[in-house]
Design brief:
Elements lengths: L3 E4 L5 E9 L1 H4 L6 E3 L3 E8 L9 E6 L2 H6 L8 E5 L5 E3 L3 E3 L4 E6 L5 E6 L2 E3 L4 H12 L6 E6 L7 H8 L3 E4 L6 H10 L3 E5 L7 H7 L2 E3 L4 H12 L5 E6 L3 H14 L3 E4 L6 H10 L3 E5 L7 H7 L2 E3 L4 H12 L3 E6 L4 H12 L3 E5 L6 H10 L3 E5 L7 H8 L7
Parallel strand pairs: 11-22, 12-13, 12-14, 14-15, 16-17, 16-18, 18-19, 20-21, 20-22
Antiparallel strand pairs: 1-5, 2-4, 3-10, 5-9, 6-7, 6-10, 8-9
């Protein structure tokens, strides 16, 4: 077996032993993980005393035909290290497709396995590219409309509106359209492009470049109401969230999209005139406020004649909304920045799924408990590893069901 180990210790290894072993014999935890071939055990002795080493780079061969047969793309292969405490680590892996090997720097040498997490990830290296990747994975060309938003609160209602209209949410800067956004619009060839927000959010020059129409109000509340009026003739239910708490609006948007309903915004203690007028126009049978009293007061809930759906924080609220939707297919987005969730909302709705929020580097306890209780069928991560880290994705994969 051709195993390459480049040690970083001053002295060369005195002995290297490599064994391919059955997964069961290696005590490898494979839940949520598709294994390619067998596991590897590696023993290295180096330095002044046997067994002492400072780590190095290790490369393992893989069979490209076996990878293809397992439905694994070469570029998606990851080298996993399985720790003594039963946890696993996805190493920062380099895939050499020419020589059919995977390499990673390691601090210890046993055991390892090559494979791929059973989670999915829709991501680019920034928010605009992530939005384009989500769109490309969800929508085919010839759709009716693409909604365009910029970073900021004016776009919070766009996810629900876009889902109802059957198209994606893509991102721009105020004065610039990124290549990823432009390329995705060209691929989709929509009948219309709608820019959401005023000229202080997205410039007239960008609207002209896109050949778009603008939907906007005087502020975030007016823009959400104008978007609702432009999208919905009627609605049996209206979802309402705080215009100051983007995280609650993120998960409210998913609930609204699932119900084919709009998302409108309020202040904590007041209902903006634009929101009141739009609710009166729609005359829904139900109004649902998403978020706790720190976001939307009981006074506002009472004035709206609404019911409340909430948890103690944004993560618990995402759990409450996910439970209300009742889907075993889950999308996961970061809870400290709304844009991946906003652009992901149409994809979540198209999949009939729910969405949970996590921290970039941790799964909150309330979310972890919900995952353990639910045993999700699928998990799709929105955003790159800066948004939701690889260790978090590894932890998420462990909640997927075991194979029969």
């Amino acid at each position: 077996m051709s195993i390459i180990i480049e040690q970083t210790a001053d002295s060369a290894p005195t002995s290297i032993t490599v064994r391919q072993v059955d997964v069961a014999d290696a005590d490898v935890q494979t839940r949520g993980f598709t294994l390619l071939g067998q596991a590897f055990e590696v023993d290295v002795e180096s330095g002044a005393e046997a067994g002492e080493n400072s780590g190095g780079t290790v490369c393992f061969p893989y069979d490209p035909d076996a990878a293809a047969a397992a439905g694994l793309a070469d570029s998606d292969l990851v080298l996993f290290h399985f720790r003594d405490d039963g946890t696993r680590e996805a190493l920062a892996t380099t895939v050499d497709s020419t020589n059919h090997r995977v390499c990673a720097h390691v601090d210890s040498f046993s055991p390892f396995a090559i494979g791929e997490l059973d989670t999915d990830r829709l991501a680019g290296d920034n928010a605009a590219r992530t939005a384009a990747a989500i769109s490309k994975a969800t929508f085919e060309p010839g759709l009716p409309v693409v909604h365009i938003v910029a970073l900021g609160p004016d776009g919070l209602g766009a996810g629900a509106a876009a889902a109802h209209a059957g198209g994606p949410v893509l991102l721009v800067d105020r004065n610039k359209v990124s290549y990823a956004t432009r390329a995705e619009i060209e691929r989709l060839q929509p009948a219309r492009v709608v820019v959401v927000g005023g000229s202080d959010v997205i410039s007239d020059a960008v609207v002209a470049q896109l050949g778009a129409t603008r939907v906007a109000g005087d502020d975030r509340y007016g823009t959400a109401a104008a978007l609702s009026a432009a999208t919905f003739d009627t609605a049996d239910v209206v979802y309402v969230a705080s215009g100051r708490r983007a995280a609650d609006a993120m998960v409210a948007s998913v609930a609204a999209a699932a119900a084919g309903a709009p998302l409108l915004l309020v202040e904590q203690n007041t209902i903006p005139d634009a929101t009141s007028a739009e609710i009166a126009r729609l005359d829904p049978a139900r109004v649902v406020v998403v978020g706790g009293t720190a976001a939307v007061s009981d006074v506002v809930v009472s004035a709206l004649g609404a019911e409340r759906l909430a948890g103690v924080d944004r993560y618990a609220t995402s759990v409450a909304v996910a439970k209300a939707l009742g889907s075993s297919d889950l999308f996961v987005a970061r809870g400290d920045n709304p844009m991946d969730a906003v652009s992901g909302t149409p994809a979540v709705a198209a999949a009939g799924a729910a969405m949970l929020l996590v921290q970039p580097d941790a799964i909150p306890t309330v979310v972890r408990d919900a995952l353990a209780a639910a045993t999700p069928s699928t998990i799709t991560v929105l955003g790159g590893t800066d948004a939701v880290s690889m260790p978090v994705e590894v932890d998420l994969a462990a909640f997927l069901p075991t194979e029969d």
